[in-house]
Known about the structure:
The chain is of the alpha/beta class and 219 residues long. 20% of the residues lie in helices and 29% in strands.
Amino acid sequence: xxGVRRPVPRSVQLRxxxxxxxxxxxxxxxxxxxxAPDGYTAQRSYSVxxxxxxxxxxxxxxxxxxxxxxxxLADVVEPGDELEVRGPIGGWFVWDGATPALLVAGGVGVxxxxxxVRTAAELGRTDLLRVAVSTRTLAELAYADELAAAGALVVxxxxxxxxxxxxxxxxxxxxxxxxxxxxxxxxxSAAFAEAASxxxxxxxxxxxxxxVERFGPNG
Length: 219
Ligand SMILES: Cc1cc2nc3c(=O)[nH]c(=O)nc-3n(C[C@H](O)[C@H](O)[C@H](O)COP(=O)(O)OP(=O)(O)OC[C@H]3O[C@@H](n4cnc5c(N)ncnc54)[C@H](O)[C@@H]3O)c2cc1C
């Protein structure tokens, strides 16, 4: 473990020095496996936030109060610790760096999109990405500054944001961001993924252009 930061309450950013690392594609994830002294193991998936050019693998984990793995990562892990990881994994929820894309995230679902935004910056193709993010409050939003710099539309559901009252992502939010030819990526809890997918379908986005990653227990 090369770095542990807690830039946002109730979450942790981990920077891992992975031996024999294979380059990842933006959108892919790693599996983190914890093993207790009695041999009990638990493993969970975590999306990569790094751009492929980053020498370290960056993960960002939201702490769920009754979560087995996220509490350990958020509360216990320190720099210098060894973590068992496997990856990169995933071939569908990836961005190729060349196709126009609309990225729609709920909460910590922004993580794979941070990798995409960073990749676009490395490639000099930030023009290809449009980003919409829904978060309870701005203080809880991971990578808020980077997302703002990327021009992301940020919707807050529990507090006003600028002149916008608290409220959920609405069709009118996505209309100016969507263009024919885009691939739409949706990431967040199962409930968010369902709602955002329905919004996109309602706008006339073909189902074949929508790729969804669910972070919830059914993920
Ligand atoms: C491909 C993929 C990528 C993912 N990337 C990330 C990531 O970048 N960052 C991140 O924080 N998480 C990510 N997740 C979710 C992560 O894998 C775990 O599900 C999450 O950390 C909870 O694990 P836990 O062991 O702490 O909780 P568990 O012990 O598994 O569950 C504790 C309780 O929380 C509920 N629960 C489980 N997961 C969630 C959830 N996501 N939201 C709400 N309730 C839940 C369970 O039903 C249970 O009641 C990803 C999931 C997938 C499938």
